[in-house]
Amino acid sequence: MYVKELHLTHYRNYESLSLQFDPYIHLFIGDNAQGKTNLLESLYVLALAKSHRTNKDKEWISWEEGYTRLQGTVEKRHATIPLELQISSKGKKARLNRIEQQKLSDYVGVLNVVMFAPEDLEIVKGSPQVRRRFIDMELGQMSPHYLYQLTQYQKLLSQRNALLKQWDKRQQHRPMVDIFTEQLIEVAVKIIKKRAHFVQQIEKWANEIHQGITEQKETLNVHYVLSTQMDDCTDEQEMTRTLSEKFDKIREQEEARGTTLVGPHRDDLQFIVNGVNVHTYGSQGQQRTTSLALKLAEIELIRKEVGEYPILLLDDVLSELDDQRRSHLLRAIQNKVQTFVTNTSLEGIHQSILDQSTVYRVQQGKITRMKEGS
What is the CATH number of the domain that holds 272? Predict the structure, then answer.
């Protein structure tokens, strides 16, 4: 798949922008704070209806404007699909094939993207929340049903926590807490099962890629670490029983702290290279290699799941990688994946990549095409 055209209206510092793309590599060159990241973010938002940078939708809207509109045309193997997303104070409206979608989960997943930015290095060395977001964003675009289940879980979690926080009314709320606990467990089991399967799949691809980068010197293992121990993440009845028992045991702790202490919202990922926990003991080079392997594994996993390569967004990441990792990244995407790259200059980008790229200059929210690849 590839994005054939993109139109932005009142999006951040782009009052109006229209671009057409071929299926290959597009380089956006310019100083910082000119709009390079905004452009890549718009492609991410068009695909996922969420940003990798902020949870505040209003930040996408240009200053003193009431709305923003993102429109794109996605060329897939068997179809050309128009996408449109409009965001205002009233919320989001998503159109697929010019038909408004009642649920965002029916819209997300038509355009698949993989974003790799400097902050993605935090997947390995950052907080568990960063790693959970990594799982949820990738699984969400491959499985709309997972996205729906995650939304349901977050609503139930919020309602259950609200009741737990009301200390003075705890006894009268306990029956309602128990009802929310049952509902929460039902959805949690499905989320955990899908996450565990996802981690198992991405480990296979990531280890293979990691060994390629390190020339067979290092083996990468990825573990899904649950907030409560389970022997089997495929048997839903057993998982339900385990979670129910755990909630019974920690009832008083939850009441004292006023929050839900068990569930997918507290799970984590662990990365082990040659038996060493990379998060805690890995070098910066090992952490970056692990992050790169995960991102490239995403590309292969999405291709396996949906039958086509996603588009790749590389936001100012080339300067963060050394020559070996940069070369491996560019070789991995060459002639396979439509790629959008931002950088402050063309320096450090191999000539073979430049030869097949379209290069643009970005300056104060204006984009000018400099050259097309041969």
Answer: 1.20.1050.90
Look at the chain and report how many structural domains it folds into: 2
Dihedral sign (CA 74, 14, 321, 125): negative
289's CB contacts (< 8 A; 6+ apart) are: 210, 213, 214, 218, 325
Mark out the alpha helices in 166-320 (DSSP H runs). Answer: 170-213, 236-249, 251-257, 278-281, 284-306
d(CA 347, CA 341): 13
| Number of neighbours of residue 365 by Cβ within 10 angstroms | 18
Listed residues 288, 306, 324: the one ending a domain = 306
Which three-class secondary structure state does DSSP give residue 359? strand
How far is 157 from 263, CA to CA, in rounded Å? 9
- pLDDT digit string (tens) for the chain, length 374 residues: 999 999 999 999 999 999 999 999 999 999 888 899 999 999 999 999 888 887 788 889 998 888 999 999 999 988 999 999 999 988 899 999 999 998 888 898 899 999 988 888 788 988 999 899 899 988 988 888 898 899 999 999 999 999 888 865 556 667 888 999 999 999 999 999 999 999 999 999 999 989 888 887 889 999 999 998 887 788 899 999 999 999 999 988 998 899 999 999 999 999 999 999 999 988 888 888 898 899 899 999 999 988 999 999 998 887 777 777 777 777 777 778 999 999 888 876 777 777 778 999 999 889 999 866 54
C-alpha angle 345-347-353 in degrees, rounded to nearest 5:
100
For residue 258, being part of any structural domain is answered with yes
Contacts of 90 (CB under 8 A, 6+ apart): none
Contact 112, 306 (CB under 8 A): yes
